[in-house]
Amino acid sequence: MLPGNRPVYLNLFRLRLPLMGWVSILHRLSGALLFILLPLMVWSFSLTLSGEAGFERVLAWRSTPFIKWLMLVLVWAFAHHFFAGLRHLALDIHWGVRLHSARRSSLAVLLVSGMVALLAAWGLFS
């Protein structure tokens, strides 16, 4: 490697990604988050099915602010992952691959997943 051709440090926070890039990155992050928290979700679900005491215990946890925020993040992650996954499937069969329609579908994914999260917040925090 020549001295003038050294690798350049790439600061990911200074990149100006298009909207489609952000939707793709958030799709990966939401999938990773859902995968990491899956054991916790399955455990809490099995606890609710174990009996009345377990159900009451999970209900008591649900009233804490941290768990409410965690549930809100999980609802957003699921909604975003679902709608971005549908968008990616449509792109795989060449629907909406033109730049204008790809931007519109990316914006639609962000808006719909945000609206689902707002509805969940209204239900959780009211």
For this entry, give a set of tags.
126 residues; 3 helical TM bundles of succinate and fumarate reductases; 0% strand
What does the model show?
The structure is a single chain. With 126 residues, this protein is mostly helical. The protein has a single domain, classed as 3 helical TM bundles of succinate and fumarate reductases (Up-down Bundle), CATH 1.20.1300.10. Helix content is 77%, strand content 0%. It contains 4 helices and no strands. It has helices at 19-49, 52-62, 65-92, 99-125. α3 runs antiparallel to α4 (99-125). The longest helix has 31 residues, at 19-49. The mean pLDDT is 93.
Summarize this, please?
With 126 residues, the protein is mainly alpha-helical. The protein is 77% helix and 0% strand.
Strand content: under 5%
Shape: elongated
Helix content: over 70%
The biggest sheet, with number of strands, parallel, antiparallel or mixed sense and barrel status, is:
none
Q: Helices and strands: which structural class? A: mainly alpha
Number of strands: 0
Number of domains: 1
Q: Give the SSE order as H and E letters.
A: HHHH
Q: Runs with pLDDT <50, length 5+?
A: none
CATH superfamily annotation: Fumarate reductase/succinate dehydrogenase, transmembrane subunit
Name given to the CATH architecture:
Up-down Bundle
Rounded average pLDDT: 93
**What value does the Rg take, in angstroms?**
20 Å
Number of helices: 4
CATH class: Mainly Alpha
Helices and strands, with pairings:
Blueprint: H1 19-49, H2 52-62, H3 65-92, H4 99-125
Helix pairs in contact: 1-2, 1-3, 3-4
